[in-house]
Automatic annotation (TrEMBL):
This is Class I SAM-dependent methyltransferase. SMART domains: PKS_MT. Belongs to the CFA/CMAS family. Keywords: Lipid metabolism, Methyltransferase, S-adenosyl-L-methionine, Transferase. Residues 156-397 form the Polyketide synthase-like methyltransferase domain. InterPro entries: CFA/CMAS, CMAS, MeTfrase_dom, SAM-dependent_MTases_sf. Residues 116-140 are annotated as: Disordered. Residues 131-140 have a biased composition (Basic residues). GO terms for molecular function: methyltransferase activity. Signal peptide: none annotated.
Amino acid sequence: MADAASRLKGLIEQMLGAPLPLRIRAWDGSQAGPPDAPVLVVRNRRALRRLLFKPGELGLARAWVAGDLDVEGDLYGALDRLAGLVWERGEDARTLRQALRDPEVRAAVRGLVRLAGPPLPPAPPAEEVRRRRGHLHTRRTDRRAISHHYDVGNDFYEIVLGPSMVYSCAYWPDPGSTLETAQRDKLELVCRKLDLKPGQRLLDVGCGWGSMALHAAREHGVSVVGITLSQEQAAYARKRAADEGLTDRVEIRVQDYRDVRDGPYDAISSIGMAEHVGAERYLEYARALRSLLAPGGRLLNHQIARRPQRDETAYDVDAFIDAYVFPDGELQPLGTTVAQLERAGFEVRDVEAIREHYALTLRRWVANLEAAWEPAARSAGAGRARVWRLYMAASALAFERNRIGVNQVLTVRTPEPGASGMPLRARTWA
């Protein structure tokens, strides 16, 4: 099909009613669009069929994961330009129905259907998780969701995360620091906020590969119980504890937070775990952690937050993230999180917003993945590696554009008659 790129560019611009800000290279080798723009590579007509069957974010994601679409040049620049066409324009059913009332849009869609050719629709890539019906965030569904994201091979995560093996926002002393330094500084910041002292007991909820547990035990002399639902993470963390000679102070369990019964603990850290809890379970989560704390004990809750919506009842989860990255994950506004923690009986003492730090962290993870692309793709599979590259790059932009944030909320199980044990001068850990 001669000059497919020009035809595709013209039809897309007719449908959008705006110039396409990317250059297109089509399956026939033809190119069209601004010469200095990132290049959107449309490898085959199947990519068009995916977009026609699932217009918007999910169709783009399916084509990307399957390798039907690619980007040459600046990936961040391409995603930034696409955001204005997809994420910021809206893609719900009502928006699409309204657009299709326009004769120009209907004509463009018919042209794309002819260009795409039969058959419709292609099967989703194997990496996609099918949406489930019924209750979310049961013990069984949470185990399945966690396994999808974390049990993809420790070798793959070693490539992406680097030696620190910390899968949450680092805390950067300056943008030129190493990722390992920034992650160590984050772990130390959490320990200082919790005011850990030798001999205390720490519960690390969602302990990952054990980095927080090991740091707290090694640097602050506490005994740590780390819990995770990932078998691969637990095995890795236990080996690290054994290699460091810390098995007498670090215990790693494959356990749901709802099943922990051996409190009280002097402190609890929950770093990048609460996003998996779900809105309907959040109060239960907060109450469960409070019941495990000794009076005067502190909880540090480190959690990604989304911006509030005008109509919260209309909010839906991100289609790409839910289908490929964090099944059943839910982000809540910071105010909702604080309110739920207070409803559970915690006293909220400090909130620190660190969204710029997560953008820096994600860009380093993307760079690690791109620098070792072949071994990463062999380890987790090419489709899964493409998922991680897209989600981390897009997330970096979301943090930079203030579409999402991340916050450390420090709370206390304040005992009667109200002595919190907190210092008079705020942020003694700074």
